[in-house]
Amino acid sequence: MLGKKLVTAQKRGETRALCLGLGMVACSMMMYFFIGITIVPFYTKSVWTTETVCKVLKANIKDKVFCPNSEGSEDEEIFPYPCLQVWVNLTASGQEVMLYQTEDTLERNPKCSYVPDKLENSKEVKARIETIASNFKKYQTFPCYYDPGGTQTNVILSRLYPSRGLLFAFLWPTLMFTGGCLIIVLVKISQYVSVLSAWQ
């Protein structure tokens, strides 16, 4: 009687462990799919892939401009802000080009190097842009990214999704997938050993 209870408890434990492993594999596949349709397209779409050194030539703050958001956005989300324009000397080619913060900055407003997030306090936005401009004037040389193919003549300060960030995004689903497969393999080995012991 006790042996039957132990066998039943063992089977229940194996079933739960197998469900856990399959669930981990299924969740990791969903995470892979989500990363594949969100992060990977932005990474492959970016043409600013080569890192070089940029030297600041001038950093000017011009009159306020309006933030042109994506199509379909409401007018109340469009807000004015000072336009910071940073021109740098590209070490790789020696050209004078305009610097943008990220790829998204160029799409949101190609006239300005920095596009702030919408803030209620316009003084805070102005102070932040002035701080950024003073930092560019203070630190004249810094790493930046340019397009080696030449389709984009401008440069960006940082990529939205760098190679290291992409690898880090794939790390967690990979660990979950490996753990799930390991649990399934251990359950199958346990079942095989149990059957082998009962047969002997």
Low-confidence stretches: 69-76
Write out the strand line-up for the largest beta sheet, numbering strands in chain order. 1-2-3-5-4
Estimate the helix proportion, in percent: 40-55%
Q: What is the averaged pLDDT score?
A: 81
Radius of gyration: 27 Å
Q: N-to-C terminal Cα separation, in Å?
A: 21 Å
Alpha plus pi helix count = 4
Class derived from helix and strand content: alpha+beta
What is the number of strand segments? 5
Topology as a string of helices (H) and strands (E): HEEEHHEEH
The largest β sheet comes out as: 5 strands, mixed, barrel
Protein name: KCMB1 protein
Keywords: Glycoprotein, Ion channel, Ion transport, Membrane, Transmembrane, Transmembrane helix, Transport
Main location: membrane
InterPro entries: K_chnl_Ca-activ_BK_bsu (IPR003930)
Can you tag this structure with a few keywords?
5 strands, alpha+beta, 200 residues, five-stranded mixed β-barrel, 2 domains
Task: Explain this structure.
- It is a single chain.
- 15% of the residues are buried.
- A hairpin with a 5-residue loop joins strand 2 (80-90) and strand 3.
- The protein has four helices and five strands, in the order αβββααββα.
- It is elongated and about 85 Å long.
- Helix content is 52%, strand content 20%.
- Mean pLDDT is 81; it is low at 69-76.
- It has two domains: 50-161, no CATH class; 162-199.
- It is α+β, with helices and mostly antiparallel strands.
- It has helices at 2-45, 103-108, 122-138, 163-199; strands spanning 50-66, 80-90, 96-100, 141-146, 155-156.
- The longest helix is centred in the N-terminal third of the chain and has 44 residues, at 2-45.
